[in-house]
Amino acid sequence: MPVETLCDLLDKLLSFDPEKRMTVEQALAHPYFAGYYDPTDEPTCGQPFQFHEIELDNLPKDELKRFNFGGI
């Protein structure tokens, strides 16, 4: 893969202006990922993640650590 292809991807991903920044879908369709990305094998989520449902503000520090590192 040419360096120019990678540079093009990085340039579009790291654009300071969010309106000009590449979306996830655009990034996955970029030629740099042509050999790795299969749109027919894309995982889906049954429901959107709602962060506000998880109340972290009142958790004790030990529980917060366990919550953050529990899957590691």
TrEMBL record:
It comes from the Eukaryota. This is Protein kinase domain-containing protein. It comes from Mesorhabditis belari.
